[in-house]
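Exercise 7.
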Amino acid sequence: MSGPSQEDPRMVRQARQAAIVIFATMLIWVGAQVIGGQLGWPARFAFLFDLMAGAAFIWALVVLFRVWRARS
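Solution. The predicted structure, written as tokens, is:
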């Protein structure tokens, strides 16, 4: 197992980017649900935000899986 001083900067950057995407997606997703509910948006817009959030979460999962495999 490699120590913190032997971390690949590219892998660290990718993991950090995935974490930021997960956090931002969560905030935008929840915010869109709340705003959409208050403004009375149709359900198709909620579904659209659900699909976009799902795509972002899947992308982040794939990136984190690749980082995990590279560290093994």
